[in-house]
């Protein structure tokens, strides 16, 4: 086998060896690496993302919307991973919940991409005039106005992560979630639910165990499209480089346990497989709501 691989990657007799050409002969360690299936390391740092979605088992209409944009610009001047990931859950029981969630992701993404287009794609990049938090906050504020104009009376959650290099800026309204899933099985919830049941738990009126079965656990006190004053949570934190970023609707995190979510990511052969496994697990557990998930990793 070793001789066969050596012949496959070595130049033919009398063929000159060109420096840096793909036909350059492999050394013994490289050949052994190919045989063992070892993954080589590169200097290119990049984001890898996948999505999963289902209407669930008990709903006829999908009111969830999601978006994932991943870009890598690399060259002699450096390497800039860029990503924008959003999950929005239209509020059930309100008219045009699916319209609200779709308007939210399109408006936020459109605003962010317009701001970043000169920075990312001009030959002479233009510096950003606003901070990442200011850009994201303005995008969410714009989506609030669009929803109130295009789908009055409706509402939606919104959890978005704007990743630039090693940092990510998160904007959050409602009870969709952003979490970091680590290789040791830990899950860290990065966002705070704007729900009645979470507020009661924070005040000590109910326990976490009671919260999981609380009868009004889907009631939100803050959502896009609702009320005159919008107060989204906007903050910047390091990207979980040693783990996986998960953004999902409550049709996933409220149905599948954290232990099972971490296990699915750990055992899956790829991020698309992990997304598929999460959606399947939520549907197997009854699929009481629409299910949306975005998984993102930083690879080297």
Overview of the structural elements:
Helix 8 (258-267) runs antiparallel to helix 9 (271-284). It is globular and about 55 Å long. It contains nine helices and ten strands. It has a five-stranded antiparallel sheet with strand order 1-10-9-6-7. A five-stranded antiparallel sheet has the order 2-3-4-5-8, covered by helices on one side. With 300 residues, the protein is of the alpha+beta class. The protein folds into two domains: 2-36, no CATH class; 46-299, 4-Layer Sandwich (Phosphatase 2c, domain 1), CATH 3.60.40.10. The protein has helices at residues 2-9, 28-36, 97-121, 132-150, 196-202, 208-211, 250-253, 258-267, 271-284; strands at 46-54, 64-75, 78-89, 158-164, 167-173, 177-182, 187-189, 233-238, 243-248, 291-299.
- Please count the helical segments: 9
How do the strands of the widest beta sheet line up side by side?
1-10-9-6-7
The structural class is alpha+beta
Looking at the structure, the CATH topology of the largest domain is Phosphatase 2c, domain 1
How many individual domains? 2
Q: Can you identify the CATH class of the largest domain?
A: Alpha Beta
Observed structural traits:
300 residues; Phosphatase 2c, domain 1; 2 domains; five-stranded antiparallel beta sheet; 9 helices; 10 strands; globular; disordered N terminus
In short:
With 300 residues, the chain is of the alpha+beta class. It has helices at 2-9, 28-36, 97-121, 132-150, 196-202, 208-211, 250-253, 258-267, 271-284; strands at 46-54, 64-75, 78-89, 158-164, 167-173, 177-182, 187-189, 233-238, 243-248, 291-299.
């Amino acid at each position: 086998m070793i001789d066969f691989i050596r012949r496959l990657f070595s130049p033919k007799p009398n063929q000159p060896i060109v420096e840096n050409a793909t036909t350059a002969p492999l050394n013994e360690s490289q050949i052994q690496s190919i045989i063992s299936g070892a993954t080589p390391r590169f200097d290119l740092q990049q984001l890898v993302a996948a999505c999963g979605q289902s209407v669930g088992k008990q709903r006829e209409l999908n009111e969830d919307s999601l978006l994932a944009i991943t870009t890598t610009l690399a060259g002699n001047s450096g390497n800039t991973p860029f990503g924008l990931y959003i999950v929005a859950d239209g509020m059930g029981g309100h008219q045009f919940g699916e319209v609200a969630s779709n308007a939210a992701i399109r408006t936020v993404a459109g605003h962010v991409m317009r701001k970043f287009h000169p920075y990312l794609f001009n030959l002479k990049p233009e510096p950003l005039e606003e901070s990442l938090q200011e850009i994201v906050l303005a995008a969410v504020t714009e989506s609030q106005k669009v929803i109130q104009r295009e789908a009055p009376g409706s509402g939606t959650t919104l959890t978005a992560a704007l990743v630039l290099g090693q940092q990510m800026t998160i904007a959050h309204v409602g009870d969709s979630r952003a979490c970091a899933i680590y290789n040791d099985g830990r899950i860290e919830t990065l966002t705070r639910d704007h729900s009645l049941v979470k507020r009661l738990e924070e005040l000590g009126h109910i326990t976490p165990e009671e919260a999981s079965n609380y009868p009004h656990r889907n009631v939100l006190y803050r959502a896009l499209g609702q009320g005159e004053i919008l107060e989204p949570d906007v903050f910047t934190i390091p990207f979980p480089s040693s783990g996986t970023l998960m953004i999902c609707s409550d049709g996933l995190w409220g149905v599948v346990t954290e232990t099972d979510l971490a296990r699915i990511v750990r055992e899956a052969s790829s991020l698309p497989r992990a997304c598929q496994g999460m959606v399947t697990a939520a549907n197997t557990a009854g699929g009481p709501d629409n299910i949306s998930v975005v998984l993102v990793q930083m690879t080297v």
